[in-house]
Amino acid sequence: MGHGHGHGGPASQRHRGRLAVVFALVAAFFVVELVYGLLASSLALLSDAGHMAADVVTLGAALAATRIATRTDRTGRRTFGSYRAEVFASGFAVLVMLGVSVYVVVEAVSRIGSQVDVQTGPMIVVGVLGLLVNVVSLVLLNAGAGESLVVRGAYLEVVADAAGSVGVVVAGVLVATTGSAWWDTVVALAIGVFVAVRAVVLARQVLAVLGQHVPDGMDVDAVVADLRAVEGVDDVHDLHVWVLTSGMNVATAHLVAAGASTGPAALDRVLADARSVLRERHHVEHATLQVEGCRAPECHSVDW
Fold first, then answer.
1. What does the DSSP 8-state code read for residue 209?
2. Can you tell me the distance from the alpha carbon of 228 to that of 217, in angstroms, rounded to the nearest whole number?
3. Residue 278 pLDDT > 90, yes or no?
């Protein structure tokens, strides 16, 4: 049996510094937006501030999770470490985003038919400032969004914030030009729906990891074919490939080598070649492989 790993930890660790900067920017601007949202009586501004509050909470959770994920387990009971903390943080982000969406929609509906004096000047100014903060944050998180689930969650939050800031500016202009506060409510509803859609997208990715699905873009048949092509391997069964956390793909498999030499050197070569195939062709750097000489029918099933 062979156990190989060469990963450098969760992908989010490479982007933790930028995540911290974005957290500071968003937290500072949330206070500004909340204050001016209350002063301007703008639901669109308050809804965007509510989303900013969700960002502050989820970014803080993401930072805490990336710290927890690298801690050494001292209990002896977490054989996989605490890497899944990042995935749980992303799941928490989904719940917060959905909560904000529900609040915005309910508040918008409650305003229908009521007269509200919306001050458009602060709306437009704060909306533009919020958009600038979001653009800077997107630039900082862009590289990590394609590598880490927790950074992707933060990135999607900021994308939704940017859309919200645009909505606030548009609402302010429309209310100023038409004199109707109805536009403030309409934009708030649109922001709520948009945030909910982004939350669902992220939720599907989180559930795929927790459900131990095959990593995105990986073809299991191709993995089996490449392992079977390793010199000395006659067949492959009990293959399982999943994502432990972003940037950390894991695999286990039994390699049937009935026709190969059973000497230690030959078996070591089979293990080394198989691990090399998984690492170089399929980005699996953490694999537990077992070489056996079984030719029984039950050994010919790829999965359970």
1. H
2. 20
3. yes
Q: For 230, which DSSP code? A: S
Contact between residue 59 and residue 36 where contact means Cβ atoms under 8 Å apart:
no
Tens digit of each residue's pLDDT (9 = 90 or more) over 17-28: 888 888 899 889
Q: Which of 210, 228, 262 is the last residue of a domain?
A: 210
Give one DSSP letter per residue of 246-277, joined into a string: TTEEEEEEEEE-TTS--SHHHHHHHHHHHHHH
* Residues 301, 110: Cα–Cα separation, whole Å: 58
Q: Which pTM was predicted?
A: 0.69
14-25 b/e with 16+ CB inside 10 Å = b?
Answer: bbbebbbebbeb
Cβ–Cβ under 8 Å, residues 163 and 197: no
Q: What is the CATH number of the domain that holds 232?
A: 3.30.70.1350
140 and 263 part of one domain:
no
**How far apart are alpha carbons 69 and 83 in whole angstroms?**
4
User: In this structure, what token pair is assigned to residue 252?
Assistant: 């286990």
Cα distance between residue 42 and residue 164, in whole Å: 13
User: How many separate domains does the chain show?
Assistant: 2
Residues 65-118 pLDDT 10s? 777 766 776 776 676 767 777 778 778 878 887 887 887 788 777 767 666 666
